[in-house]
């Protein structure tokens, strides 16, 4: 735990808004009753929910540029900084791994390691953070930009021109694309996302363009830190670059569809462009114009983003270990029973699911607000 340092308020606000949205869409009362904007696209395409994770990875990139700039300027500190980045990335990976294996250890400990999912959201954040941090420290701004372009081009080429054994070229279907084939070969079906068993939305190959998303954020962070450019110019160029990336992503979509599960190159540009526009707006309103009063609820989320994301994933797993008996004699988790008793009778199914998710977000806000007032930031 540490006292908070001076921070870019708009970035904390944007991070907090993103994490709150992650928790909202990850915790509906019922997965069978969700409003369309709060669901992921079935495959190709992009809903507001599909923007949440890339926004967060993009923000990680911006944060790297702010947090590691002094180390980048002093090569003698690179080794120490890289070691810290690796430790932090591994911590994130094992937090995600812990969430994946937690229930399995309780229900079937003998087979937990044989069936646990190896990759996931926190695992991807950790891996991308390590790779992107090293690139930031060792490469110039121009090289980082070139690396981003190469990553997008190489991933497109791999997915388009490398034949999938037994399938052929340029296949973008769920189970027969190159990324899915690699996931099954490296991770094996036992360690892939349980909802599919044949492909993983945070899989091996698609981690490459996810690094691209983070590098996009790093480039924005470098731009935002420049002291030789005034604020109106920063905002104008960031808006322009963001809109250009969105347009390029939409054009590329015709040939290489925007797809979150595959983290396609068009998706990197589209989501990164929208994130750039969003941060430009937040920066102008909050940091430049000084409208700050409305930011507190999301800043509270932003300064302890990983902490609340981990706790939000852990709490249902822990509470539903407590089994209660229903009137019909069957047993269910206490959290499920609470939802059935206090929400379902008073709302339509889809609204009960939404109100539950909002309640979940507000409940964690109470804890985070206490931490915020005590100046407690838990650095993972």
From TrEMBL:
Gene Ontology terms for molecular function: acyltransferase activity
UniProt keyword Cell membrane, yes or no: no
Keywords noted in UniProt: Acyltransferase, Membrane, Transferase, Transmembrane, Transmembrane helix
Transmembrane segments: 12-31, 51-69, 90-106, 118-137, 144-164, 203-223, 235-255, 267-286, 298-319, 353-372
Signal peptide (residue range): none
UniProt name for this protein: Acyltransferase family protein
